[in-house]
Amino acid sequence: MPQEKLLVIGDNFISSQLMRTSLGELADRFEVTEASTPFPIEPFRNIAEVREASGSEEQMVDVLQGVSICIAHHAPLTRRVMEQAKDLRLFIVCRGGPVNVNVPAATEHGIAIAYTPARNAAATAEHTIAMMLSALRFIPQTHAALHRGEWKGDYTWDSAGFELETATVGLIGYGAIGGIVARILRGFGTTVLCYDPYARMTEDSPAIQVATLDELLQRSDVVSLHARETAETRHILGAEQIRKLKRGAVVVNCARGALMDYQALEQALRSEHLFAAAADVFPEEPLPTGSSLLQLPNFITTPHIAGGTKQAAIKATRIAAEELGNYLQNGTLRYCANPEVLTQQKVAK
What family classification does the UniProt entry report for this protein (predicted)? Predict the structure, then answer.
């Protein structure tokens, strides 16, 4: 009897070889084939109806022929692809959420969708702290000035930053990443507030939960975004919220571009209502080279690299392998975007 076909679709960050290595002996149960997309040498983009994808629908239609299980990173799983991938029953995305998958269409086609939450939580949390410190102390700007031969050691009372030790930092969103950020900040001696109506706090939590977003905004010296992007959280830090921040506050966004109104942020930076801001994510990526934000001396940015560590890639493939093992052993998935499909598949057996 021929073996089932398993496809691993890697890229220049999470390679197909890394995926195969993490599968270990599970790979022996399949006829394994490999493919690759150009991410992140070429940034992800919207493909048909899915977001943050890499590769093409044409490639997916070709490589998924006869494949029943696929492990991928940014490869697009669109309705068009699924209509021609007749054998596919499980698609595992090595990401915190399957935004490059049309989940409703997958449910219609009886394809279970798994994902790998928190695989880059530590990486993103550490990058958040780095961005916070860079914004408070203007590290990138003074570094660049030295390379230009300029000695920018002329800080004044008005231009000097402030310390995390005596600061209050407010976290909007308190999931896996926000929790790690809070733990790191407490090591500095920082008072950490969090606003997340869905968070379940414990007695030993490093953050203090506040009842309203307004309270967090009014008390915080630094605000850092860590919420998921939903209709509810879009522009959760908009013009009205930014106006409520203390004069001289700092804003950091290493979560999703849609969480913040960047036009309002730019105005607040230009007026010096905000001392500084740092962002790793934007509503439009790549950020246009002519963006006026890039002209601001008190704005620090990185190109959506917060989650990009070797450990994050390894964790993603290991979680994916664990999910495949669960699925093969008892038809379950710990992290499934459409669990109703699993019930349908069990009934079909």
Answer: Belongs to the D-isomer specific 2-hydroxyacid dehydrogenase family.
